[in-house]
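Deviations from the work plan: none for this task. Representative record:
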Amino acid sequence: MIQMFNVFKNYDPVSPALIDISLHIRKGEFVFISGPSGAGKTTFLKLIYREELPTQGQILVNRRNIAKLPPSKIPYLRRSMGIVFQDFKLLNNKTIFDNVSFVLKILGVPVSVTKKKVFNMLRMVDIHHKMKSLPPQLSGGEQQRVVIARALINDPALLLADEPTGNLDPELSMEIMRLFEEANQKGTTVVVATHNPALIGCISNKRVIMLDKGRIVRYY
Amino acid sequence: MFRAIKYFLREGWSSLWHNKGANFLSIAIIIVSLYVLGVFLVLSTNFNHILARWSENVQVNIYLEENLSEPALLYVQERLSILPEIEEFVYISKQEALQRFHTLFPSLRTLPDDIGGNPFPPSYELKIKKEYQTIDGVKRLASSLQRLDGVKEVSYDLQWIERLSTVMKLLRVIGIFLVGVLVFSAVSTTSNVIRLLAYARKDEIDIMKLVGASSWFIKGPFLVEGMLQGFIAGIISIGILYLSYRLVSYYLALSYNLLFGFLLFTFLPLEYWLGIISGGTLVGLMGSFISIRKFLRY
Ligand SMILES: Nc1ncnc2c1ncn2[C@@H]1O[C@H](COP(=O)(O)OP(=O)(O)O)[C@@H](O)[C@H]1O
Ligand SMILES: [Mg+2]
């Protein structure tokens, strides 16, 4: 699903964010990207959904070289993914419901189907009672759950989650990880970036890639 | 597809409503340019009417040499009956011409005698067929008549029509120029307004891109917003145009000024209304299209 060949990423010349990353994440895997803050986890994910391009090296997503992807194809790449952004990226002037249903609107899903699906999804992350609120009216943890709902709503082939439980209490974190695991069992490839080792423990069938200062330091 | 258009309409309309202030600016400038366009259209429509009406009354007279022989006269007559432009012709003899003069100007009764006899040449009055009642047509006919043997002079009263059509040509040039300038400024105003709105929503646009919205999906509402600006402006400008037309024709009627009373006897036909409205919509669409392109580079 994801292959990287000697990937480097430099935001500036002196301190590279990723150094010589080569790896292969297979379809159906559940992978953790771990490591301390600043290790390059977010950058790693951004390369996959092509918000950033590698400075050097090749990245294949679904066997396609995404550096060579024409701009008009980028939306299709992203539609096949669900992304939990570290900084949420919710539309602040749209309701919670509209934020989540937006993804389905892009896909052209009929309104009647959308309504039901979004409501069920919001219930799964326990935020359906705030459906009509705007994101700024929600707490960090609540917003995070909305982002997770948005990422899962289109049954993505690939789920990229950046610190998805950073604002959640341990109990809810477990609940969310269970949701991810469920999606994984239904065929979604899951990549979770986290600096929280406790989170990794709650998934049994997983792989962990540990980053530090932009390098892969452990791989198991 | 349908769903997307519905979404664009809803979003575009709500943004238009939400940003009344900025949108008002571009609506106003589109109104001004469409209004000016409309004024020129009204004027030229009416001028065209007048031209058509006046051309119907064009009369061509040919004056013959004095003392034409019978065969020469017959020759002229024969030519006149062959020419396709001529609907009918009437012969006015020297005598008849003099008689007309007497009835028209009874007080000058003695004038012909004073200057030594009947000064009026024999002539033909021609009526021109409708399809040849154009300036060029009449001129061409006149010059071919001029070449006939036995014809001394050809006269036709085209001056007014010629003047009017010169005015119209001038008007058209000024109109095209003015409307061009105004349309340009309307497009650029709309594009700036939409750019401003898009800039204010840059974060939102970026998020939409990140969750997989295609550039058309993001553009849609902005394009609709621009089109709505133009559409609304088109309707308003026709409204204002009609009001000012009524007002002006009311005052012209009051002033009993025949020439100008003539000038405004019809408003624009429906096709022009639709043209103005779709022109406005196009202006708005172009403005927003130009500005939104930049925001959507991936
Ligand atoms: N947009 C950016 N511009 C410049 N430097 C950046 C940018 N994003 C991240 N970095 C730098 O790259 C390194 C890795 O950052 P990041 O990928 O966010 O790490 P993590 O997600 O593991 O905390 C950090 O040193 C960070 O300062
Ligand atoms: Mg990070």
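The longest helix of chain B spans residues 159-200.
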